[in-house]
Amino acid sequence: MKRSIDKLEPFQRAISKAHLASAGISIDSLLDSDRPLIAVANSWNELCPGHEPLRQLAQEVKKGILEAGGEPVEFNTIAMCDGVAQGHAGMRYCLPHREIVTDSCEAMIVGEGIFDGAVFLGSCDKIIPGMLNAAARIDLPAAIVTAGPCYDEIKPSESKALRARFLAGEATEREVIEGTLRYYTGPGVCPFLGTANTMACLSEALGMMLPGGALLPSSTSQRRFCARRTGAAVVDMVRRGIRPSDIMTEQAIHNAVVLLSCMGGSLNAMLHLPALARELGLELTWDDIAQVSSSVPVITNIVPNGDMSCINLYKAGGVPALLKTVEELLEGGCMTVTGETLAENLDRDIAIDRTVIRTMDDPASVASGIQVLYGNLAPKGALVKTSAVPEDLHVFTGTARVFDSEDACYEAFGQGTIEPGCAVVIRYEGPVGGPGMKELHRVTEIMRGIPNSGVITDGRFSGASGGLSIGYLCPEAAAGGPIALVQDGDRIHIDLTRNLIELEVPADELERRRADLEPSGHTVDRGLLPRYARMVDSARTGAAVR
Q1: Rounded distance between C-alpha atoms, residue 414 and residue 418, angstroms
Q2: What element of type H or E holds 134?
Q3: Catalytic machinery residues
Q4: Is the domain covering 36-151+186-249 a CATH 3.40.50.2300 domain?
Q5: What residue ranges do the domains of the chain occupy?
Q6: DSSP letters along 26-91, please?
Q7: Helix, strand or coil for residue 405?
Q8: Which H or E run contains 425?
Q9: pLDDT at residue 274 in the model
């Protein structure tokens, strides 16, 4: 093995080593040609609960790198908390910041030109996808480490009930804070099957994380040991020449889609997996994912699909138990960061709690994870997490109540003017129209209190969202999609049994409306968001930046 730093021109090599030595890296390590330099890309900060533990975990990663004969070099990137950014204009930055994470890791690792491998530490919704994209783009031996989910002391339903009491004016702000701390008991990933835990689990299915690493609880010894082993594993990958392109193959992405389907994971994976495939030079469409999801049964009911948390799933066997249960559907020959194949990793005794993880032939295991809906309102598709939709809403016809922003919907809710039986349409919140494609989780929370209703949007949802929540609608309103033509009082028909979403307005009337349409979006004059709007692709292709 010849290290990257030793491939530099001799004078620059000496100067680069001098700079690194002045930063505290030992001269002996820099002169030892058998000691690979491993980047530790850490997204630690004090704002995001899922990222607060990563400072300590980075120390464990570095111990593992040193023990395996490598030399760690740590740097930081950013990490937003979607929970803090919810419900206001700041949410427009969350999806774009996925690209910043990827680009910053590329700039540091490729730009410095000295690294032989990398460990990426990230825990939350856009950061894990951003780091997976970086690993794919850079293609140096790499693995993912997360903080793991925090322990919960109360059931998800109790946390939701507390929030509902606050919205009804029956709980104080302090009561919400103190009560929520019994659900989010401390630093770590939120305990539900949102995007953060979904993407951690998919990282494991892709082979980019050590077996069991996705759901080991935060702030435990096992979580620290896993971080340490990951550091050592990447040094071994460097010596064996195992790269992300050897691991994240078309077959591995299939395995990730199977896992997404069988656990009823976050809809946001429908953005992140196609974007990852693009970085790998592959193609993954919504229809590809829906085809798998239509045949793979959901075998566990983690919130929002039920009333259990990711800690319950961890105790039941975690991702290895899920993969073992659906092993016959997987491509077992895929390489992983262990240096062994997925099948070899699963070829051991894995304890599985069948009260949490069902068998595929269990009558309760029904293929109802994620659907792509089509119709005149969404000619290029819209997404729904069917496993989180009450059965009595699988067929729904409602009266449109149209809003051109999330804020306008909040205002109407505050005035008490959103009525039962309505189909709330929130548009101009797509990747371009937002700009930034806001996550409308708070809207789905308030709509829970309005009977027989649904939400339809060209924005997106949290993995924790439930109810009849249809989003990611394409084409978005800012691109002139039919959602821009909907008017208050129109009837909208949804039939999940037929993958259908229809605007019950005659075609000639829609053409008349289109003649008067001037698609718009939210105006942002400067900074990141207008640049993002000019460069971003459709949600259907992962909202990736060209």
Answers
A1: 9
A2: helix 127-138
A3: 462
A4: yes
A5: 36-151+186-249, 372-541
A6: -HHHHH-TTS-EEEEEE---SS-TTTTTHHHHHHHHHHHHHHTT-EEEEEE-----HHHHTTSGGG
A7: coil
A8: strand 422-426
A9: 98
Contact call for residues 85 and 96 (beta carbons, < 8 A): no
Buried residues in 506-518 as b, exposed as e (16+ CB within 10 A): eeeebeeeeeeee
Using DSSP bridges, classify how beta strands 491-495 and 500-503 pair: parallel, antiparallel or unpaired.
Answer: antiparallel
Residues 24, 279: Cα–Cα separation, whole Å: 34
User: Which pTM value belongs to this model?
Assistant: 0.95
* The domain over range 372-541 is classified in CATH as 3.50.30.80: yes
pLDDT, one tens digit per residue, over 502-525 is 999 999 999 999 998 987 778 788
**What's the DSSP call for residue 289?**
H
Q: Which of 418, 422, 376 is nearest to 396 (CA)?
A: 422
Check residue 92 and give its pLDDT.
93
Tell me how many degrees the CA angle 117-258-327 measures, rounded to the nearest 5.
Answer: 90
176-232 per-position pLDDT tens digit: 999 999 999 999 999 999 999 999 999 999 999 999 999 999 999 999 999 999 999
| pLDDT tens column, 217-262 | 999 999 999 999 999 999 999 999 999 999 999 999 999 999 999 9
User: What is the total residue count of the chain?
Assistant: 546
Span 387-409, average pLDDT? 93
Provide the Cα torsion 83, 461, 91, 503; round to 10°: -150
